[in-house]
TrEMBL record:
This is NAD(P)H-dependent oxidoreductase. Residues 13-176 form the Nitroreductase domain. Belongs to the nitroreductase family. It comes from Nicoliella lavandulae. The keyword Flavoprotein applies. The lineage of its organism: Bacteria, Bacillati, Bacillota, Bacilli, Lactobacillales. Signal peptide: none annotated. Keywords: Flavoprotein, FMN, NAD, NADP, Oxidoreductase.
Amino acid sequence: MDKNEELINLAHRRYATKKYDPNKHISDKDWNTIMEVARLSPSSMGFEPWQFLLIENKDLKQKMYNDAWGAQNSFNGADKFVVILAKKNMTATSPHVKHMSEDVQGHTFDPNSPFTKKVMDFQQNDFDLNTERALFDWTSKQTYIPLANMMTAAAALDIDSCPIEGFNRDNIEKTLADAGAMDAKEWGVSVMASFGYRDQDITPKKRQPMEAVYRVIK
Ligand SMILES: Cc1cc2nc3c(=O)[nH]c(=O)nc-3n(C[C@H](O)[C@H](O)[C@H](O)COP(=O)(O)O)c2cc1C
């Protein structure tokens, strides 16, 4: 099989798992690979506006159960349950951007630098990121990149997964904050995902034809 076929098979092999086998566990080696792929994901200007919470605490899962209605299949059997947080209020001069610039990217941070001004202009004018909600949605969007990479990496390792948006954000954030799992002033819940081994057959993909979603503009 050539690489193109392999990639298409992988895309068919990944599916949103509705029934997991609770007796099967992901090896540490495989899980570390999935997390490393998440960590290496690209982000706008390299600011990495995310954190990944692996929820192992059974009581906490129980507390989340009713509010995370789209995750109930996952709670009942997935080996790993991840909540992806997105950074709040990540403006050009915010402490997170300063930290990323200085401690990760190795630049000196200057609020008056041409780079900072460019980020400000991008946020305020190009992308209209002028409310807390718009800023949160922008960082949340970026978390879907590691989410997708994790699911594809899992499929390549023959591990099943499910992306999850079926939850009440306010209630889940309160539950996680009360448990000390997140600082709700700094972070919001963007999306969740589960990983494990299926206890059902993979359903064939139902998708629009290529010509409905892809156009070449000449
Ligand atoms: C952003 C997003 C949120 C989703 N939320 C849920 C969810 O809460 N619960 C669930 O069982 N499936 C969820 N899904 C799975 C979709 O229903 C599924 O991916 C889609 O129907 C296509 O099927 P496939 O992934 O099996 O190819 C979600 C998918 C995405 C991309």
